[in-house]
Amino acid sequence: MPLSRQISTTSPVLSRRFAGRLGLFYGAVFALSGTHLPFFPVWLRAIGLDAAWIGVIIAVPAVTRFTVLPLITAGAERRQALRAAMRLVTFATASGFAVLAFQHDAWPVFLVYVATCCLWTPLVPLTDAYALRGVMSYGLNYGRLRLWGSAAFIVGTLLCGGLADVVAATELIWIIVSVGLLGAASGLLLQRLPPLPRSAGPAQDGRHLLSDPGFLCVIMASALIQGSHAAYYTFSAIEWKAQGLSGLTIAWLWTMGVLAEILVFALSPRFTLAPSTLVVIGAIAAVLRWTLTATEPHALGLTVVQISHGFTFGLTLVGTMGLLVRQVPAHVTARGQGYYSAASGIVGSAASALSGPIYAQYGPGVYLVMAAMAGLGGLLMWTARNRFAGHPHSAASGG
After folding, report:
1. DSSP code for 295
2. CA 32 → CA 54, 173, 221, distances in Å?
């Protein structure tokens, strides 16, 4: 079933304009992640911070996802100000990184980074909520919108990687600032969302979602499957380096996974399976992927492992968004995204913390634990699949 639901008839011109400007914004948002993820730790090291401080600082975004993030998404929704919130947090994020560039001592860096992340981490769930409102209003497809983010992540990583060879490591922060400013500029182009149907009522308190078994099943199953990537994100490059792979080969393996993800997003309008089935397939693929990874595959095996990222991450995300757009009333979309991100943050950070000592003791055997996590998420979704076969929320009725 395609991830689109038309609840009103709108001009094709407005629909294309909305999609184009949102695609540009998605690109800017994920280009920032593509420059920050690999090279921010390099900058921290270059300004003289030790490994202990770097570890503490890098953990900050995960903590803000399940503490501050839900409060900001809820506040934006209560004020019916998704677009304004997206603009505000992109500008604040760029400003925060600019202030960070002038800090060189551990405590000031930590405190400024905490403040920056409190505003930065809500950006993706706010953008996803805005996108899902567009899906419902314009009959668009989430995967086609989201693929621009994945493509820009690759561009951001490669661009920053190339510049890192000619720019001093202490200056890498300014590349991150520049990309952040591009995000702030692209936010000015975002269209105003169409008003909710009158019967949907004003933005209400969405805490009732936490007592909805169907909603809880969706976010927990997805969090378990996506959280099973924790060991991969943390230890894959270390493991591949130990196997003798070059840095360029490792970069290509990561890129291959994101390209597979983009392909899934591009093809998602053609999918006819139920969203819950897509999530289950993503879980099965993750179980197979992590089981194979635990055997330390080489060459062809690594290629299969990376291509399967399109299923383990991409297909799971497409299915999850398909379920959320049907299960969550339009007037609490941002609140739903905030809870989903919080669940993912809790499970992901816990998986990351546990994978460290397990990897130290068992090496690649840590991936068997990740396979079990993914299997649990798939089992949870499979047992609850009939719950999603009924009548989805109507955006016109407000749920």
Report:
1. T
2. 19, 11, 28
Q: Is the dihedral of CA 243, 311, 151, 82 positive or negative?
A: negative
The span from the CA of 5 to the CA of 138, in Å, is 8
Burial of residue 206 (CB within 10 Å: 0-12, 13-18, 19+) is: buried
Cα 338 to Cα 89: distance, rounded to the nearest angstrom: 15
Q: For residue 390, which amino acid is it?
A: G
Q: In angstroms, rounded to a whole number, what is the distance separating the alpha carbons of residues 372 and 142?
A: 29
Q: What angle do CA 349, 23, 254 make, to 5 degrees?
A: 45
Best CA proximity match to 171, nearest among 244, 246, 104: 104
Q: What is the DSSP letter of 390?
A: S
Q: pLDDT digit string (tens) for 129-168?
A: 899 888 888 888 888 898 999 899 888 877 777 777 788 8
Would the pTM of this model clear 0.90, i.e. be above it?
no
List % helix, strand, coil for the chain (3-state, nearest 5): 80, 0, 20
